[in-house]
Design brief:
Distance between the termini: 52 Å
Structural class: alpha+beta
Length: 56
């Protein structure tokens, strides 16, 4: 491995936990996602969680 590979930070998608490559990642709401579909799924899941807490 070269120094460039060691220094490059890989992150995981906030929704599906896939490893993200530097050239294929989307930054939304302080998190990295592999695509817009994962971002939309995460928003929907968070909204359902909030409505469940309010109803309880």
């Amino acid at each position: 491995m070269s120094k460039k590979d060691e220094n490059e930070a890989f992150k995981n998608c906030a929704a599906c936990k896939k490893v993200l490559l530097r050239k294929k990642r989307h930054y939304r709401n302080n998190a990295y996602y592999c695509n817009n579909n994962c971002f939309q799924k995460k928003l929907k899941a968070d909204a359902e969680k909030v409505t469940a807490e309010v109803a309880a």
